[in-house]
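Hi D.,

Good news: the full-assembly prediction came through. Inputs first.
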Amino acid sequence: MKKVIMGNHALSWGAQLGRAQVIAAYPITPQTQVVELLSEMCASQALNAKFIKVESEHSAMAACLGASLAGARTFTATSSQGLALMHELLHWASGGRLPVVMGNINRAMAPGWSIWTDQNDSLSQRDTGWMQYYCASNQEVLDTTIQAFKVSEALAIPSMVILDAFALSHTYEVVDIPDQDKVDKYLPPFRPKLRLSSDDPHAFGGLTSPEHYYELRYKLQKDMERAPALIEETGREYEKMFGRRLGLAEDYQCSDAEILFITSATAGYTARVAVDALRAEGIKAGNLRLRVFRPFPFDKVREVARRAGRVAVVDRNLSWGCHGIFYQEVKSALYGHTDGLPVTGYVAGLGGRDITPETFKEIARDALSRKKNEPAEEIVWIGVKR
Amino acid sequence: MKKDKTMKLSMPIEEYMGPGHLACQGCGAPLAMRYVLKALGPKTALCIPACCWSVIDGPFPHSALDLSIFHCAFETAAASASGLKAGLEMTGDRETTVVAWAGDGGTFDIGIQALSGAAERNEDIIYICYDNEAYMNTGIQRSSATPYGAWTTTTPVKHFKSRPKKDIDAIMAAHRIPYQATASIGYAEDLFKKVKKAKDIRGTRFFHVYAPCPAGWKSRPEDTIKLARLVVQTGIFPIFEMENGENCTLNIKVKERKPVKDYIRLQGRFRHLTEEEVQRIQDDVDARWARLLKMCGA
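Then the structure:
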């Protein structure tokens, strides 16, 4: 069934098709339509779930953790300040090995108050042990939500499905809504190996001495290292059943790229338009859109970058006092693998400033004007009013 | 020939708490847990946030309880319990009683938002606050449950706590939850009876259980039960229950209240108080007692 829906509703549909059993959420702009539609889905019993309408995002995540520990499939959604408020419990989710799936609408952090997109909210949660998917279309939001449940539950690691404020959250697109019975085949019910039950008493998350804690975190990383292959595998399985591939990254015109953009989220789709325009001008451009940021797709980035003439990483985020965050990660992934490949970091679109095909043309012009053996070490700011 | 005498037990003999816990000598908190679990039985699961009990239970892989525990974040007892209950129900378990078990810091202070939220939603959980009147697990820092006059490490003698204890029971009454009660480990049968009663009520049930802390109060471990009875007999901590924020019933009727001095002078945390300051406490207790009697229609 094809429907014209907004990005936020694609998250709600993903949760319904994934048969989330417990939802706990708190409203925040620009996430509200996610929970509004889920409330209606629960009220009409289209979705058989308990919806706990909590008094804060902190309690939303706490309730999700309790429900997940009981063995229920859990979903929530938030944005920006709400995600920041959850921070403590994001560690609790991954450390407790609870596969909660959460939608996060990328929204710039205050002050000043902003409701528009940038990635500093979710990237501030980089080290919490959550998998992070950055989506570029409403279709991808819906598909990824279903895939995220499958991958999370297989690894006992939570997932964040991330979409840009307004550019996706409030933008209507045609979305193919898969049949429930087919989704049920792809995503069987959640049956955790260990769950809290009064029939088989266990204490979860108690005081853990240095004798044991280290190994618990080692296991988390070892399972996170299994994620890239599993995301590719479940993505191929999804393609077989639904006709859409869900991989770690999407490469576009990369095989002979003189200038390779490395992008994420909706900017990654805009980049494809710019690639076509640049190629029409005779400039061999390519785009690698990272769909997954955690686990970081090291192999994919190395494999694609190796064939490129130069790399321009475009960040809608910034680690203050350092650099764009994707830029740092790409550079560290390439270190020792691509000798002499110039990699430049571009910051653009903070606080929801538009990123357009023209933005990428400007980036291409800048990158191509630089000597290959003298890549910029400093941040290259695009469109900032100095 | 002597007749066989059988003693009638006021509580079930079954234990859900083992003796190998890590509480200090004379601690009231394990007694509270033990009595409560006797009333709730094996189909019970606990959410325990940061508090003395997150240590008392013992480190991984040990646990003093024969029940499932979700050790949750400090401010999340009520929210975690809400989620746990929903998760259990959605996976087919409608029977298990979910208990949020928190100290006074996790209830009066950092956890009050989640507690208020859960109570307003009338979540089907039992919330039990065992109150030892300060952050004891972190080493005796004042909480909003610390009474007027008390020494703690953050209210030193020269700056003892000058504000009264927060009235958590009135706050909970304002939420009009189906059931709430105060209790003291010095009146075990009363606590047991009320928890048993609460078990069969649906919706949010709140218990405020008084549990002395010899280490933090600078009292003698052997005085714990004495203090837990004196606090009631002086009228400092009245024992009552309420339904929907109304119908207040006094469970332990004190005919002749003892002077608060009897209670105060057994504890080092009040040692610095002058006669005038003790009198001030007495006057406050007298006024509050009169108000309570009026509320209970006694």
